[in-house]
């Protein structure tokens, strides 16, 4: 028995020491609350890191919130600890901290797995049972295959505004299992991505100002319900991605901010600690204990909930000292790079690739100065980066009167110049349909019919442009009103025939993408695309080829950006033979006016740019068509 006690003591001591050296990536197994169960009794051990606190008491339902349970501090690590048999499962508790300056304040447990529901934010005594998962087949397939060479089409969701009950309460994950997963299947998405699910006190922050890095927001249900949701997603071949915010945290005084009365989770320099742009506080990403805390958080979500991808929010704010509003200081080398943030992200991605190489690491990063995707040796080490440049250029172009689009055609084509410099996701996200920016539908030029036509055109370009895809909820049917975080989506829109047909269009386009290997299997290489004509400013028509591994596996994509139908339109093609239209955005079933597709086209020996052969067909006004070869003759000498 004594030997076992000694081993336990050594294990706890080692756990604490590795936490303060920045190498404990399971620190939730040491800090927070943990049940100790023997034949004789049940006790709970509580631990909290507060190195400069003068004293810390455990308070909660079990002791009338009085200072009767003093904690002891390990001076070497700054971790306070107490073991007691008073609590019961799900009791509320906090830590009553006497800060460095003598101020007394109730603080949350940073490692809490469950919080009470808003407006309270006390932690709960909670022992998480290990789940017996049934998604082994799905996860095994993910480990054996390369996500870079698979279709990736993401439906982005803000959990609490997807659907509301009549009493104003949002759906929990138990209810979303019944509602959202069938919808994802109907819409043919490969993945769902949630804006942050971790505990946050104000829904107005959309989840991007967190207090609980290990806790599912109590607003959304229990951890077990979210595990069940992910499992059912996997059983239906749907991946789950979650947003995570390691750059900054909520300023609330009773949460992480200046926990022990001194800079603890935040930078010592108050100018670097303050995030003026978002009214939050920046993590000190160079501090070892913060690195242990954050990397433990991401691994906890991946391992506890079988998450398939993590989208790291606001990477630019983590790697540039001059990103925020207001004054800034240069680094010790005289540059703008936040070296602590840069090396932390490399360390984070190195740990993730070692522990879970199959999990997608995605950066929301808006600059072009730093290599974001690739190996740790030559980049930050992410798998994907949101292509904010493409998004900004494209939406500016589609908002424009077609009369001026020809003179601004480079907005449509500039991304071809840099599309291979990073591995990109093309995002039409929540950020573009809020704060007066208008919905995607509302951005489109012209009357309602033309707006739907251009939305179909835009989504076709999204699907056929190299890069993975993301679309925010409600955009799939052309919701006209801006997204509101405190109201459910405008599901009533689907009673309108045009909205219903737009939803059907998006579903079929997603299916078309999944079934078309030439749209994703060579995506990492230049061979995936060949431009036919990106210089047609007069007619404002863009055409290109998307190529698969087999020579005969390719599509010809043609997008008409004006309200003028282009008859007998010449398109260069790589091989002699017959080409058949397989996609037309103006079909009646999608809300257009075309009853049938264009007739198959046979090549003529008319040169077009670099091509010896060409075809002629009709391209609808504000429409897009896709053709594939059905009977072609390939010159083997080429």
Largest sheet composition: 8 strands, parallel, barrel
Please give the CATH architecture of the domain at 166-361: Alpha-Beta Barrel
Mean pLDDT metric: 95
Q: Which CATH class of the domain at 166-361?
A: Alpha Beta
- How many E strands? 29
Find the CATH superfamily of the domain at 166-361.
Answer: Glycosidases
The end-to-end span amounts to 78 Å
Can you tell me the CATH topology of the domain at 166-361? TIM Barrel
Identify the quaternary structure here. single chain
Enumerate the strands of the largest sheet in spatial order, edge to edge or round the barrel: 9-10-13-17-18-19-20-21
Radius of gyration: 27 Å
Poorly predicted runs: 5-9
Helix content: 10-25%
Give the SSE map.
Layout: H1 2-20, E1 32-37, E2 42-49, E3 55-60, E4 72-74, E5 79-84, E6 92-98, E7 104-107, E8 123-124, H2 136-144, E9 153-157, H3 159-162, H4 173-187, E10 191-194, E11 198-199, E12 212-216, H5 223-235, E13 239-244, E14 248-249, H6 270-273, E15 274-275, E16 280-282, H7 288-305, E17 309-312, H8 315-319, H9 339-355, E18 360-363, E19 384-386, H10 388-399, H11 410-413, E20 424-428, H12 440-443, H13 448-464, E21 468-472, H14 497-514, E22 529-533, E23 541-547, E24 554-560, E25 566-573, E26 576-584, E27 601-602, E28 613-619, E29 624-633
Parallel strand pairs: 9-10, 9-21, 10-13, 13-17, 17-18, 18-19, 19-20, 20-21
Antiparallel strand pairs: 1-2, 2-5, 3-6, 4-5, 6-7, 6-8, 11-12, 14-16, 15-16, 22-23, 23-24, 24-29, 25-28, 26-27, 26-29
Helix pairs in contact: 4-5, 13-14
């Amino acid at each position: 028995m004594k030997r076992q006690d000694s081993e336990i003591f050594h294990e706890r001591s080692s756990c604490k020491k590795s936490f303060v050296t920045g190498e404990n990536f399971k620190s939730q197994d040491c800090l927070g609350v943990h049940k100790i169960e023997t034949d004789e009794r049940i006790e709970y051990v509580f631990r909290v890191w507060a190195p400069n606190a003068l004293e810390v008491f455990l308070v909660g339902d079990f002791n009338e919130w009085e200072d009767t349970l003093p904690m002891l501090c390990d001076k070497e690590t700054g971790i306070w600890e107490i073991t007691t048999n008073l609590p019961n499962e799900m009791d509320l508790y906090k830590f009553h901290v006497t800060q460095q300056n003598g101020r007394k304040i109730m603080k949350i447990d940073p490692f809490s797995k469950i919080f009470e529901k808003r407006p309270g934010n006390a932690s709960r005594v909670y022992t998480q049972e290990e789940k017996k998962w049934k998604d082994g087949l799905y996860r095994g397939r993910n480990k054996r295959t390369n996500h870079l060479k698979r279709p990736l089409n993401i439906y982005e969701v803000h959990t609490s505004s997807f659907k509301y009950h009549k009493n104003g309460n949002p759906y929990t994950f138990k209810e979303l299992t019944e509602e959202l997963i069938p919808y994802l299947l109907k819409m043919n998405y490969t993945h769902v991505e949630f804006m942050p699910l971790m505990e946050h006190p104000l829904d107005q922050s959309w989840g991007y100002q967190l207090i609980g890095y290990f806790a599912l927001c109590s607003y959304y249900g229990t951890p077990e319900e979210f595990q069940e949701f992910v499992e059912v997603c996997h059983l239906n071949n749907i991946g789950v991605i979650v947003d995570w915010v390691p750059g900054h945290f909520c300023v609330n005084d009773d949460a992480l901010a200046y926990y022990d009365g001194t800079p603890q989770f935040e930078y010592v320099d108050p100018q670097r600690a303050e995030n003026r742009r978002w009214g939050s506080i920046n993590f000190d990403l160079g501090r070892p204990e913060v690195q242990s805390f954050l990397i433990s958080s991401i691994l906890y979500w991946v391992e506890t909930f079988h998450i398939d991808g993590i989208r790291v929010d606001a990477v630019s704010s983590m790697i540039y000292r001059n990103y925020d509003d207001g004054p800034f200081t240069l680094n010790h080398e005289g540059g703008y790079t936040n070296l602590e943030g840069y090396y932390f992200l490399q360390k984070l991605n190195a740990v993730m690739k070692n522990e879970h190489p199959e999990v997608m690491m995605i950066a929301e990063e808006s600059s072009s100065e730093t290599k974001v995707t690739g190996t740790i040796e030559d980049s930050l080490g992410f798998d994907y980066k949101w292509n904010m440049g493409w998004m900004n250029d494209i939406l500016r172009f589609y908002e424009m009167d077609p009369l001026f689009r020809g003179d601004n055609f480079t907005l449509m084509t500039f991304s071809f110049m840099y599309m291979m410099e990073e591995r990109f996701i093309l995002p039409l996200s929540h950020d573009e349909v809020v704060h007066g920016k208008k919905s995607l539908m509302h951005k489109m030029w012209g009357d309602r019919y033309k707006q739907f036509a251009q939305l179909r055109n835009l989504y076709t370009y999204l699907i056929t442009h190299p890069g993975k895809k993301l679309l925010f909820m409600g955009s799939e049917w052309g919701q006209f009103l801006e997204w509101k975080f405190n109201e459910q989506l405008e599901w009533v829109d689907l009673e309108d025939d045009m909205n219903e047909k737009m939803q059907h269009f998006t579903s079929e386009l997603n299916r078309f993408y999944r079934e078309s290997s030439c749209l994703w299997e060579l995506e990492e290489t230049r061979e995936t695309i060949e431009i036919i004509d990106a210089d047609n400013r007069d007619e404002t028509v863009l055409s290109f080829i998307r190529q698969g591994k087999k020579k005969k596996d390719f599509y010809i994509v043609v997008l008409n950006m004006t309200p003028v139908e282009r008859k007998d339109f010449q398109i260069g093609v790589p091989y002699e033979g017959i080409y058949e239209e397989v996609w037309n955005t103006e079909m009646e079933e999608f809300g257009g006016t075309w009853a049938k597709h264009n007739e198959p086209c046979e090549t003529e020996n008319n040169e077009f740019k670099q091509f010896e052969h060409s075809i002629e067909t009709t391209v609808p006004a504000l429409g897009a068509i896709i053709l594939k070869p059905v009977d072609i003759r390939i010159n083997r000498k080429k």
